[in-house]
Design brief:
With 211 residues, the chain is mainly alpha-helical. It is built from 7 helices and 2 strands; from the N terminus they run E-H-H-H-H-H-H-H-E. The protein has one domain. 28% of the residues are buried.
């Protein structure tokens, strides 16, 4: 029987991905909005960081494991909060954005040459993708895709650093949003196209799990 990859049924896939995004992004954003409304920017950053680390602790206690996306969110948010709180200046407030991307670059690059590249972990956790772990073609893809995202975050770091040096804070924040969205869209599209080519090359199929 040919090897294949397996995804949850559409409704469960939506729930799995939605839950991971909610606890990694939604809860910290909600914490920031509430904190900043009550006590300003610094309070918002502290509230968001507290929320994400409480989620990490809750995950560890209840499931005995912490998803990679949640770990990334906690580490990046902690770095950003430390920069904002310790310095208190507009310059260092803006510096948090390229520093966060640099941190992501290093995190992806550190796992890329290992047996557990980060993209493979995220695919398993965020969309519950099951795949033959021993398949050399898939493993090389996940390693390559992890290097790809490390490169995207490296380019984003450089781009944000240049923008911070030549633009006003208001323009910098607007362009930073555009650069971030553009990088994510480009990385997702390239990864998806690459993934489809790998599936075709090795004759693999993606199936939905049985009810």
């Amino acid at each position: 029987m040919a090897e294949h990859l397996e995804l949850p049924r559409p409704w469960r896939l939506t729930m799995t991905a939605g839950w991971n995004l909610a606890e990694s992004l939604g809860l910290p954003v909600a914490g920031y909005l509430i904190g900043s409304r009550l006590g300003g920017r610094d309070a918002g950053m502290l509230a968001a960081t507290a929320v994400v680390w409480l989620t990490v602790v809750g995950r560890k206690v209840i499931t005995h494991s912490v998803p990679g996306l949640l770990t990334i969110s906690a580490l990046v948010l902690t770095l950003q909060t430390a920069v904002v709180i310790i310095t208190g200046s507009v310059l260092f407030f803006l510096l948090q954005f390229p520093l966060a991307n640099l941190g992501l670059c290093l995190l992806f690059a550190r796992t890329a040459p290992t047996r557990r590249p980060l993209v493979a972990q995220l695919a398993a956790e965020v969309v519950a993708l099951r795949h033959p772990s021993h398949h050399p073609g898939l493993h090389k893809f996940f390693q390559g895709a992890t290097w790809l995202w490390a490169g995207i975050f490296a380019l984003t770091t450089i781009g944000m650093s240049v923008l911070m040096a030549v633009e006003t804070p208001k323009v910098f924040l607007l362009l930073t949003t555009a650069v971030t969205i553009g990088g994510i869209v480009a990385g997702t599209a390239l990864s998806a196209l690459w993934f489809v080519r790998v599936l075709r090359r090795f004759g693999l199929q993606v199936r939905f799990a049985k009810p």
